[in-house]
Amino acid sequence: xxxxxxxxxxxxxxxxxxLIGDLQSGLPxxxxxxxxxxxxxTLRQLSIAELIVAVASLLFPSGANFIFLxxxxxxxxxxxxxxxxxxxxxxxxxxxxxxAAAFLFKDERLAKFGLIYIAVQMSYAYFRAGLAxxxxxxxxxxxxxxxxxxxxxYPGIRSLSxxxxxxxxxxxxxxLLVIAFELLVWTSSFSSSLATFFFAGAVAFHFVIYRAFGxxxxxxxxxxxxxxxxxxxxxxx
Length: 237
Fold this sequence. Notes:
The chain is mainly α. The chain contains 13 helices and no strands. The longest helix has 27 residues, at 108-134.
């Protein structure tokens, strides 16, 4: 996005011209604030500020930095009229909130709750996704997975979908593997070995989704939450 010229941004589907009508009718804010929030220059400035503070946080982490990133991400999500990208926006909020809490509390025991919060939220998100799938016959029979991949914008992934349709047993086994992974992620908290095993599975799972649909934020946002679960697996009161 930062590489786009001003004219490219103005012509894009998420330009101020395309979004300002919805923002004006949907936000209880003064018109000048809506105009500021919807402008292409504001989006670019927020993105640059977010990038700078994110990099700085790697070297000088602090609660203030993560609160700033939380607010900036919230403003960007408001501009785009909600949270999208495969749940990555919600997970970013969870990670930033938990990390901010971990750095803000001076009491080490309270700070740990920030990391535990991230781990619990992430485990629940996986479990909820698996629970939704296991109640649907199309997923249990392996029909939903090929249909899901068929909507990919990439020809290679669509070819894989067609191949899975021609091999229903493999499609069913793959679907059950995905469901089992999502339903059992929470067990990672019981053992560091289990946590490492499921983390490797998560890397593969999210990388496949990234390659299939180009959801790069989906890959990085979810993996950024995994250190909390690895921590919880090794946590001893």
